[in-house]
TrEMBL record:
Protein name: Flotillin
Gene (UniProt): LOC107717450
A GO molecular-function annotation: protease binding
Gene3D superfamilies, per database record: Band 7 domain
Keywords, in A-Z order: Endosome, Membrane
Main location (coarse class): membrane
Family: Belongs to the band 7/mec-2 family. Flotillin subfamily.
Coiled coil stretches, renumbered: none
One term under GO cellular component: flotillin complex
Organism (species): Sinocyclocheilus rhinocerous
Length: 299
């Protein structure tokens, strides 16, 4: 970033990433770096809220904000004529001071177990302070936490023991739950099996009942059909017998008719014979014969 000072330039002209024409001996130009600076923020043996001294190291990325005119003007006022190393040292001391202040308000457990929360607090507090200098905090990350009294080691051992205990408890609970679930599953399996057998028995029973009903119906229909067949056979035989009787009656009637016709024919023949004989013989002979034949016919 360029800052042009001199005749006709009040306030100074600020140019971020550009060019400008300068009148020698009349105007003066100064540069400020807008590059990102990486700072190694160390805080050695800082006492926490419970009086435990710890050392904390954080990594911060900062830079002068060239896009914001107000922050750029503030940076020019603060760092005009200073080198990049001097700017980095000022930002580093500011960050280190805020880091110490936050460590003093927290416990070792809070810092060690929730690093994200600690980093967010440092980032927030440092950003609000550095922004007045025209510097923006791009990022902050907690890199390392250690102590010289093995407090963290003891805390880790206690945590390890707690984790191991929780693991054993969890494993025991898991086994217990597994046994319970297996027992429930077996019970459900047996119940389902019994239920299935009951349903099969019910289905078999219903099948047998329906089959028995169908058999009764079929047998009834079969018996009715058999009886109807026998009845029809009997009716047919009876009708045949009746027709035979009628035929016999007709035949007998015809025989009687033929006999009557034969008798009539014979009578006529006799009459004709008598008539012929009466014409030849005397009347007393003829009378005698007629009476004799009449008597014979009557007998």
């Amino acid at each position: 970033m360029l800052s042009l000072l001199g005749c006709g330039r009040s306030p100074p002209l600020l140019i971020a990433g550009g060019r400008v024409f300068v009148f020698p001996c009349i105007q003066q130009i100064q540069r400020i770096s807008l590059s990102t600076l990486t700072l190694n923020v160390k805080s050695d043996k800082v006492y926490t809220r419970h009086g435990v001294p710890i050392s904390v190291t954080g990594i911060a990325q900062v830079k002068i904000q060239g896009q914001n005119k107000e922050m750029l003007a503030a940076a020019c006022q603060m760092f005009m004529g200073k080198s990049e190393g001097e700017i980095a040292q000022i930002a580093l001391e500011t960050l280190e001071g805020h880091q110490r202040a936050i460590i003093a308000h927290l416990t070792v457990e809070e810092i060690y177990q929730d690093r994200k929360k600690f980093s967010e607090q440092v980032f927030k507090v440092a950003s609000s302070d550095l922004v007045n200098m025209g510097i923006g905090v791009v990022s902050y990350t907690l890199k390392d936490v250690h102590d010289d009294q093995n407090y963290l080691s003891s805390l880790g051992k206690a945590r390890t023991a707690q984790v191991q205990r929780d693991a054993r408890i969890g494993e025991a609970q898991f086994k217990r739950d597994a046994v319970i679930k297996e027992a429930h599953a077996m019970q459900e399996k047996i119940s389902a099996q019994y239920k299935n057998e009951i349903e099969m028995a019910k289905a078999q029973r219903d099948f047998e009942l329906k089959k028995a009903a169908y058999d009764v119906e079929v047998n009834t229909k079969k018996a009715e059909s058999e009886m109807a067949y026998q009845l029809q056979v009997a009716k047919t035989k009876q009708r045949i017998e009746e027709e035979k009787m009628q035929v016999q009656v007709v035949e007998r009637t015809q025989q009687i008719t033929l006999q009557e016709q034969e008798i009539t024919r014979r009578e006529k023949e006799l009459e004709q014979k008598l008539l012929r004989s009466t014409k030849r013989e005397p009347w007393w002979t003829c009378c005698w014969r007629n009476s004799h034949w009449l008597v014979h016919l009557n007998f």
